[in-house]
Amino acid sequence: MPHPHIARRPKRADGQRNYDAILGAARRAFERDGSEASLEDVAASAGVAIGTLYRHFPSRASLVEATTRDGLVLLVTRAEELSAGDDPLAALTAWMDDAVRHFSTFRGLVGILTQSWYDEGTPSHTMCDAMHDSGAELLRAAQAAGRVRADLTPEELFDLLLAAAWLRENATPDRDGSARLLTHALEGIVL
Amino acid sequence: MPHPHIARRPKRADGQRNYDAILGAARRAFERDGSEASLEDVAASAGVAIGTLYRHFPSRASLVEATTRDGLVLLVTRAEELSAGDDPLAALTAWMDDAVRHFSTFRGLVGILTQSWYDEGTPSHTMCDAMHDSGAELLRAAQAAGRVRADLTPEELFDLLLAAAWLRENATPDRDGSARLLTHALEGIVL
DNA sequence: CAGCTAAGCTGAGGTATCCTCAGCTTGTCA
DNA sequence: TGACAAGCTGAGGATACCTCAGCTTAGCTG
Q: A181, B3, B31, B81 - which has most CB atoms within 10 Å?
């Protein structure tokens, strides 16, 4: 199995400069055009030749993932903070909220993260895994406190997370149904 | 406002033949490669020049929508059938199930239908609207029977539908969480 | 059945984006 | 200061998009 490429900060000073410039340009481009933004544009905005972009990020997915890595880390630490509180259900829902927001920072992100999710050996699979564990832990706590039905699996929780993020990503700003979706899943619809 | 193009069956016999051949080829291609399948491939499979494809379907969306129009119509009639039964809640959930299946017949479909949804004046906006009404009617009936919380709006129901379809579309066949998502939204998670 | 005409078809070609790689430039370290 | 590997460049082949000028033909009309 060829080792999956994980973009890491290069050693030489000029390499780092370019790496950062590309990442910045990519963030701006993705936020504007979604994850399908032109990579040649990104390279140009970063003031770098297209080959340099591909040197640092051999695939579109690796670039997308690099732009969101910080956010994933943040979610892990956030989970730790939240689990220190004394209301496990509130902690869980607050975290889900943050996660949904992060997973929908630009169009197309959820789809890519979902792939990383399922496909072992994707650039940010490890990171996703860590985040998965954080969420699962919050869920376990809420279940232990008897606040959440015991038969809910982490997978089901994450499906809910992904679905809500997709909804948010595809909504017009004024018409974001993700919060409602979460509420309904939590409280139920049937009387 | 330029009138939105609605692909309709052309008049001449050769035109109809080609229209149908393209539609068939497109169905096969979309099912295999998702909604981003190469239109040049589609044209080739249909035994037709690329210009002919564009003559009949001026945009990718119009082709995608044409391939699924029948299904949408089916959903409308299905709603009528179901509403004849005597269990409004069962009718609603059965219909949601069908709708989710239809909306996820190939990768990328939900996204396109969601656009048609929001953007007035899209090829199949009218059809979507009809379907929307069918679903809303089923919902109203279930609410009237006191089986569904009265504050649930049709929009929220459709968000749930879209989200579930997206989940199904993006899952590996063995890992389809859409049914669970629906169940959870219906029954709730919190104890 | 011949002739006309508009509906319909064709496919070359301009544009955009992807991604690679051979060769050049430059940071770093001794 | 010299050597060399890390890094950069950008031309170019491949693919797909979409258009449009010119050709073909279905179907009508007398």
A: A181
